Amino acid sequence: MSPYSAILGTGASLPRRAVSNQELTLFLAEKGVETSAEWIETRTGIRQRYLCDPDETNCEMASKAALQALQAAGATPLDVELIILATSTPDQVFPSTACAVQAELGAHKAIAFDIQAVCSGFVYALTVADSMIRAGQVNNALVIGSEVFSRLMDWNDRTTCVLFGDGAGAVYLKASSEPGILGCKLHSDGNMGSILNTTGRIEGGRIVGDPFLRMDGQAVFRQAVSVLGNSALELFESLNFKLEDLDFLVPHQANVRILNSVAKKLKLPEDRVIVTVGMHGNTSAASVPLALNHAIVQKQIKKGHNVLLQGVGGGFTWGSVLVRM
Ligand SMILES: CC(C)(COP(=O)(O)OP(=O)(O)OC[C@H]1O[C@@H](n2cnc3c(N)ncnc32)[C@H](O)[C@@H]1OP(=O)(O)O)[C@@H](O)C(=O)NCCC(=O)NCCS
């Protein structure tokens, strides 16, 4: 058994179509939905998002991101022993998207399953993969966050449809004698399920209930700022880790004002917070690995850096993972 798991490679994949605030505003105006590019950018920091066309799938994006992560790590699909895919927007009810990715990659040796913790899905999946590696059940894992949230949007609801985008990010994790993942802390509170949800289901061949994403934006905002700040401090305290030793925060990318508030609460300079929400919008479980990959490609995050990954979202769920890259 190895004392740690370490991230050896990252990857990302986005749909081919980028949609700017201006383009989205025009599309919504045709439907009689009033918004403006300026409102979206000043209230959220979002300038554009990528949206899947009907022929693009969750599995396709996830597989591309996974292959990139494997290539960055010098590994191949045949090496992979575990695939955990975090998503709330699978291509089908079952089999899992993780199994579809396994087939697409030809990763014959892997155990594959999905995790559903909405926008916290990636940190949940990373925590489970880290535990399975440290317990000696597997030697490595592909951990993927991949979403097609555009398929849950009510394009007549301006309070939600301007916020979300599609995409996938992945990391390849391997057993290691050196850190690695230093610690993980997850939380859930099912009593807050009503502030962010999609309650519809398939029954008797029909959709029963509401198939669209619904959100109490202000309640989610307040909750996100509170739990992200507390979750970071709780994890640091349990590891005896000092805030001044943190190089970068990679939080779930929902709204730049949430990210700034968390940075302020932690007394972290804003240049140590990775912000990609402007480019991607909120991509739910894909947002953290997309942001991590972006910061690595841009050479902001480098080997040896201490990085805090944070998720927060529907459930309510939230969590933090501290990693030495
Ligand atoms: C959704 C969110 C951007 C709204 O921003 P806000 O500053 O709280 O705005 P409010 O909800 O107070 O709305 C202010 C006004 O803007 C309006 N508005 C909402 N969406 C709008 C849009 N797309 N365009 C123009 N006006 C809009 C509201 O109707 C309201 O108008 P009113 O004052 O006449 O009633 C913000 O609450 C947020 O980011 N919440 C968290 C969302 C999130 O992170 N979700 C995912 C978590 S995983």
From TrEMBL:
Residues 238-325 form the Beta-ketoacyl-[acyl-carrier-protein] synthase III C-terminal domain. Signal peptide: none annotated. The last Arg residue of the ACP-binding site is essential for the weak association between ACP/AcpP and FabH. It catalyses: malonyl-[ACP] + acetyl-CoA + H(+) = 3-oxobutanoyl-[ACP] + CO2 + CoA. The active site is at 119, 252, 282. SUPFAM superfamilies: Thiolase-like. GO terms for molecular function: 3-oxoacyl-[acyl-carrier-protein] synthase activity; beta-ketoacyl-acyl-carrier-protein synthase III activity. This is Beta-ketoacyl-[acyl-carrier-protein] synthase III. Its main location: cytoplasm. Gene3D superfamilies: 3.40.47.10. Belongs to the thiolase-like superfamily. FabH family. InterPro entries: ACP_syn_III_C (IPR013747), ACP_syn_III_N (IPR013751), FabH (IPR004655), Thiolase-like (IPR016039). One of its GO terms (cellular component) is cytoplasm. It is found in: Cytoplasm. It comes from the Bacteria. Homodimer. Pfam families: ACP_syn_III (PF08545), ACP_syn_III_C (PF08541). CDD domains: KAS_III (cd00830). Residues 253-257 are annotated as: ACP-binding. It comes from Limnobacter thiooxidans. GO terms for biological process: fatty acid biosynthetic process; secondary metabolite biosynthetic process. The keyword Hydrolase does not apply. PANTHER family: 3-OXOACYL-[ACYL-CARRIER-PROTEIN] SYNTHASE 3, BETA-KETOACYL-[ACYL-CARRIER-PROTEIN] SYNTHASE III. Keywords: Acyltransferase, Cytoplasm, Fatty acid biosynthesis, Fatty acid metabolism, Lipid biosynthesis, Lipid metabolism, Multifunctional enzyme, Transferase. Residues 113-190 form the Beta-ketoacyl-[acyl-carrier-protein] synthase III N-terminal domain. Catalyzes the condensation reaction of fatty acid synthesis by the addition to an acyl acceptor of two carbons from malonyl-ACP. Catalyzes the first condensation reaction which initiates fatty acid synthesis and may therefore play a role in governing the total rate of fatty acid production. Possesses both acetoacetyl-ACP synthase and acetyl transacylase activities. Its substrate specificity determines the biosynthesis of branched-chain and/or straight-chain of fatty acids.
